[in-house]
Amino acid sequence: MIQVPDSFDRKAVRWKFTVGIVLFLVWTYFTGEVRGDHYVFCALFLGLFWSGSDKAAYFGYLALPFLLVGVLYDNLKLALPLRPEIHVKDLYDWELAWFGVDTANGRQILPEWFKDHPVVLFDFFCGLAYITYLLEVFGVGALLFFKDVGGLQRLAWGWLLINILGMITWIAYPAAPPWYVEQYGLGPAVMDALPSAAGAARFDDLIGVGVFASFYSRNANVFGAMPSLHCGYPTLVLCVVWRYGWRWRVPTGAFLALVAFSAVYLRHHYVLDVLAGFVYGVMAYTGIWLVTRWRAHDVEAKENVRLAGFGVAADPARPNDGASPQQGSGT
Asked: Is the distance from CB of 133 to CB of 259 less than 8 angstroms?
């Protein structure tokens, strides 16, 4: 059974969230466009807090970082004018030198080779993996709510951290993806270049629905190839579930491998972007793990001081990282 902490005040939290969501919608109205998905997600969170269920409200509270990521991404466009020169040729040249393959047409990067050698089976499974990468994060988060609340917190806050790191990199080191080079070449960046589904368009053709065409039509940042957060997210998930054993490691690891291959096969990322995504996923998990450890020791130290005031000896046992089979650790 899920244990809602006694310190959780649903009524106080729901009003804070309600005010925050209203302010977000007002801000979005004046700085951009309020879309249908804004209303859907805001209604979902409001429903959790106003449902009358402490458990539903607690889940919404724990899922706050997921909502914050959406807010940050919606406002990313405000920071795009701060970008320096777009990296086009240098990244391509590094990819060609380190991961290029020799072909009858000369040396090519892997996305170029895959463009000339498509496989229908790959088109389907790579497209499916590439469009469901967010569902893995949210699905694992929902499962962890019932298995280990601490794991959900590590995933949620780690997801917020990896997105912050990714967005900072997109602004500081804006980089063109492989499909952009195919369309516009290696010259100075075309700043009004339209987003593209690239190889994922073949998935749309297979199923007869423009899933990727619709998804990428709302892409606010064409020059965000480095790092690949498509690969960073499943890396973070793998790190979070690693402690739960092979039944969790194998499927999440396999999904990570498929998404990493898909990123290159569908021509959305270089191998360099994929490797950077791995690094960012590990960095985000490590950062949250360190904060968790610090908080656990900080709580222990304060408790020891409190006990010392009553003349009670502190428990010499060192705490773990706050995780327990049910409640887990907070961040």
From this structure: yes
Question: Is the CB of residue 84 less than 8 Å from the CB of residue 177?
Answer: no
In order of 121, 325, 329, the CA distances from 297 in angstroms are 51, 19, 12
Tell me the mean pLDDT in the region 279-285: 98
Please spell the DSSP secondary structure of 261-298, one letter per residue: HHHHHTTS--HHHHHHHHHHHHHHHHHHHHHHHHHHHH
Q: Which two tokens stand for residue 135?
A: 């569902």
pLDDT score, position 328: 45
Helix 36-49, helix 64-74: angle, nearest 10: 160
Structure-model confidence comparison of residues 105 and 174, the more confident one: 174
Residue 16 in this model has a pLDDT that exceeds 80: yes
Contacts of 178 (CB under 8 A, 6+ apart): 92, 109, 111, 112, 198, 225, 267, 268, 269, 270
- Answer whether residue 81 shows pLDDT above 90: yes
| Highest mean pLDDT (candidates 70-79, 180-189, 217-226) | 180-189
Peptide bond into 227 cis (omega under 30): yes
How far is residue 201's CA from residue 204's CA, in Å, rounded to a whole number? Answer: 5
